[in-house]
Amino acid sequence: MVGEAPVASHSRVVDGQVVYVARHDSLRAALERAGLDEADALT
Fold first, then answer.
1. What is the pTM of this model?
2. Which of 9, 19, 34, 36 is 20 to 30 A from residue 28's alpha carbon, by CA?
3. Backbone phi, psi, residue 20, to 5°
4. How close are the terminal C-alpha atoms of the chain, in Å?
């Protein structure tokens, strides 16, 4: 697949190390999976 699409990611850090990274099709999906909402988003 070639092209561009907006994506959002979320990660989990434990003891200073990244232990989980996930990519999502939307910011809303990433925030939901991380247990956050749009008020918590970094832009």
1. 0.63
2. 19
3. -155, 135
4. 27
